[in-house]
Design goal:
The protein is α/β, with parallel strands linked by helices. The protein contains eight helices and six strands; from the N terminus they run αββααβαβααββαα.
Length: 194
């Protein structure tokens, strides 16, 4: 039977499966509409998220909120989770062993929410979802299919804050997301599923 988000969060409570438990303030499970059409997947909580127990509430999150509008989306409509649920010290990259022990929770979240579209933010989320070693630069800007999901890899918002040349590409990708959603909704209405 598919676990609910509440079941998964209860399983994660007090997690000590990797060393990040020693330095985290809070486990950052995920937030949003449990029946979201779109699931956004980031890398790992940063400082603000570790303190506030919610994904993307720092500077990258503020930027993400402005981009969502380009796709015709609001934070309330979507769900956001991360590959890692605990903050790596000094925001270092996730270690492979941490990804291995933490991603079963993400897989369960994907099953529970059962979205149409997965938006992977940055290399770590994209590599995990598409099971590829390819980098985000070569994968963004196109819709990929995995299982029954459409996957749209997008630069991580924090990377685009540091490198302004990525801004226009980010905006293009959020507009592409908006068109993808419109198309999927129109197809559902045609099939009488909406
Ligand atoms: N960066 C991420 O990848 N996730 C967050 O929740 C915040 C910043």
């Amino acid at each position: 039977m598919t676990k609910t988000l509440t079941d998964i969060q209860a399983e994660l409570a007090g997690c000590r499966r990797c060393e990040l438990c020693e330095t985290r303030t809070n486990i950052v499970f995920g937030v949003g509409n449990p029946q979201a059409e779109v699931l956004f997947i980031g890398e790992a909580p940063g400082k603000q998220e570790d303190l506030g127990a919610e994904p993307f509430i720092g500077a990258a999150g503020q930027y993400l909120n402005t981009l969502l509008a380009l796709a015709g989306l609001t934070r309330e409509e979507i769900y956001i989770a991360n590959v890692l649920k605990c903050r790596p010290p000094l925001n270092r990259d996730p270690h492979p062993s941490e990804i291995e022990v933490c991603t079963p929770y993400l897989r369960d979240q994907v099953r529970a929410i059962n979205p149409d579209v997965l938006v992977t933010l940055g290399n770590f989320a994209t590599r995990f979802i598409l099971q590829t070693d390819r980098g985000i630069t070569g994968l963004r800007g196109q819709i990929h299919l995995t299982g029954r999901f459409s996957v749209l890899p997008i630069f991580h918002p924090a990377a685009a804050i540091y490198d302004h040349s990525k801004g226009p590409l980010m905006e293009d990708d959020f507009r592409l997301l908006g068109r993808l959603l419109e198309k999927r909704r129109a197809e559902k209405t045609e099939r009488g599923l909406a």
